[in-house]
Amino acid sequence: MKELTLPTRILADMALLRRLPDGHAKKQLVKDDLARRQAGYSGERNLRYYLGLLPKNKYRIFFDIYLSIHQHHFQIDTLLIASKFTLVIEVKNFKGTLFFEPSFNQCIRLINNRKEGYPNPILQSDRHRELLSEWLNERHLFFPPLESLVVIAFPSTILEISPENQPIIDKVFYAEQIISINEFEKKYRNRKPLDNNQLNLLETTLLAGHIEFDDDVLTKFSISPGELVTGVQCPLCHSFSMERIFGSWHCKQCDSNLKNAHEQSIMDYFLLFGPTITNSQCRKFLNLSDRYLVSRLLKNINVPSSGIGRGKIKKYINPSFFNQIHDQ
Ligand SMILES: [Zn+2]
After folding, report:
1. Is the distance from CB of 321 to CB of 213 less than 8 angstroms?
2. Is pTM, for the whole model, over 0.90?
3. Among 65, 145, 242, 244, which residue's Cβ finds the most Cβ atoms within 10 Å?
4. Distance 242 CA to ligand 1 centre (A)
């Protein structure tokens, strides 16, 4: 119902890394953030693969759904709705060995003989379950009983849970064990299922409540626009020494000629500064002085413009953002 897509934040981190000068103090921080998010995304993709093997049309599945309740945002990695139960799934991709410590409700990861403490993912998914329940109740919706689970994305993560901790064992699965969903089918077999109308209403309300998260990475990392490298970047040697010559881009560094080198740079702008760009913002970011050239470049990448008219500055809208608002 809501497909798994590459999170914009990953693209924004990548754009920021392209634009931060070498040796910038925050570069490593952004790299670490990107690596963590990419690991998370690959974990979700792996679970997505196993969910794809479940019987078709039996479950309504939503990936990365962001909801807000009382100014509080929460994200559910995977939400699976069946007619008799709902699963709130937190997906974790950890390297090494994972211990669940029930007395302090802690999760400890052992890697290269080093111990690191993490927020307990079971508590995280429990909290999301409670928030979702509150969110649905506020909208007076019927919904099947909610269960929260933690899915460990890859079997390379070793889980150590002592046998007396049955409640933890019941809540933590490997992605490939998602077939254990049958346990919930059994548990709720005597429950009256929701009918299709109720399920459809649940689905449309969730999709309408989903917030497209516009991550402002510059604010997140406290980086000001002035710290970024401007210009058109060469996609081959990554230098910012491209010049516009005879309708094409020439790289002074590696001598290559490319027709569309500006497109990545304009997308970088959207990822870093938001969904619209004006001619003057584009000139500044691409280090160009010719407003007619910039106007042509923006038109050629099919960026629809808005705000035409007297006294209004023409704004170009990020094409991917444009698709989103029109898909809804
Ligand atoms: Zn180059």
Report:
1. no
2. no
3. 242
4. 7
Q: Show the domains of the chain with their CATH numbers.
A: 8-209 (no CATH), 230-327 (1.10.10)
pLDDT, tens digit (0-9, with 9 covering 90-100), for 37-77: 999 999 999 999 999 999 888 999 999 999 999 988 999 99
Rounded Cα gap, residues 76 and 210, in angstroms: 10
For residues 309 and 323, what is the distance between their CA atoms, to the nearest angstrom?
23
DSSP assignment of 87-104, as one string?
EEEEEE--SSEEEEETTT
- State the distance from the centre of ligand 1 to the C-alpha of 249, rounded, in angstroms: 10
**How many whole angstroms from 251 Cα to the centroid of ligand 1?**
5
- Compute, in angstroms, the gap from residue 228 CA to the centroid of ligand 1: 19
Q: How far is the CA of 116 from the centre of ligand 1 (A)?
A: 42
